Amino acid sequence: MNHQPSTAGTTGHAPLPASLAGLLPVSVMLCMIALEYTQAHIFGGLAGAFSVLSVMVFAPRIQTSRLAFVAIGAGLTVWAAVTRPDWTEATLTALERGAMIVALFTALSAIRNAAMGSAGILACGRFLARQPPGLRYTALTIGGHLFGLILLYGSISLLGSLAAESTAKEADAELRRHRIRRMMVAIQRGFASTLCWSPLGFSMAITITIVPGASWSSVAIPCVISAVLMMATGWALDAIFKPRLATPPPPRLPETGRWLVQLRPLLVLLAVIISGVLALHLLTGVEVIGAVMSLVPAAAILWIAIQPRPRGTGRMSWTADRVMLFVTRDVPHYRGEIVLLFMAGFIGSLGSFLLLPLVQAQGLDFGALPPLLIIVSIIWIVPLTGQLGMNPILAVSLLVPLLPSPETMGIPPAALVAAITGGWALAGTTSPFTASVLIAATLGRVTPREAGIGWNGVYILVMGAILSLWVVALAMLL
């Protein structure tokens, strides 16, 4: 995701208006769940309305830079109303697209909230950060990937904080600097690789929505291979460019904890959620995104219910209090993210609707380009726009609808989806405007440019070339 986390704290009660405002994104989520299961457009309209209300309530309390997105969205709406007779339908579609993103974000925030209160999850993170040098990069890459499936960019915050904690007592400044960089890079790349395939992520949810003929089940295996390629390439580059220290590091005692035992809470959680999502998808026929939005909040509530609670507190009342605290305190603290994510989806959808006739009027026909050139270009264009400050949600929503459908190009949808999500993942490691890079920069005490291109410049060149070959192979072989 290409946004900076809210700087608001998560302790103490928010003022009453902000507390009540937390009900709006939750209402968006409930309406989108109903839409997924009933296909009744009234729920899509309600979700869009609740999203607009959310933006109106949250806008006065967000950064000025994010208000610019609200102004652009309003301007595009006026432009559409003045120039296009079918602007109403396009605007409703854009509202529904933005509402879907808000709904998914709210659902995933619920499971992240539950995870951050779990002692078992924190113990998993500390175990990974304690690994000796020979295993640390691999452990944190795998950990960044597994945690990222549940916590999104919160995985970088959690694991990165534990990594910084583990290096803080290192007396050698040179060793400390190299160690924190390598640990943060491993976590970054592990998280970014989830963007290639995860059914819980924005990248996959949005891509399969806008690519005709695509579904998660049909693209999962090629996209999982993309993720494996990303993690393996990151490990290889870390081994090749391992720094040479002026002073050998002090010996460390081996970690005695057993991997399966230490990672059991995280692995069980992932197994429950992913298997539950697939079961819902297969049994009900609802799209994977609908299964995620409905299952994940329910899993979060159940997880909270079984967590340790204060002595003398009933399980039901403890769970209800935690849920209400999430709705009335935590959700409003995500106001900046909610506004930015909704506007990115809205602007991308409505902008592509307005841009298409302009492109056609200029005689530009992307269908005349070789299909292989198109899919390879996508891998490089998405991270390039990230360097310019464009949210991947916005870039993908704006550009992909301008392209011919996979059927028209004569390529399988999986090749185009793998190109889009692969480019999105590369943007997640290099754009100085993404939450993942911003968090890594803060924890590593460097600038966002250094944590992005500085740490991952060679990686994106090598990985971009590998992904380019991979999507070409998919296009030719599937």
Report what the structure shows.
- The chain is mostly helical.
- The protein contains 22 helices and no strands.
- It has one domain (16-242, 258-477).
- 77% of the residues lie in helices and 0% in strands.
- The protein is globular and about 70 Å long.
- Mean pLDDT is 89; it is low at 1-18.
Shape field: globular
Gap between N and C termini, in Å?
Answer: 29 Å
Q: What class do helices, strands and sheet pairing give?
A: mainly alpha
The count of helical stretches stands at: 22
The profile of the biggest β sheet is:
none
Low confidence ranges: 1-18
**Rounded radius of gyration (Å):** 22 Å
Portion of residues within helices: over 70%
Strand content: under 5%
H/E element sequence: HHHHHHHHHHHHHHHHHHHHHH
How many domains is the backbone divided into?
A: 1
How many strands in all?
Answer: 0
- What's the average pLDDT? 89
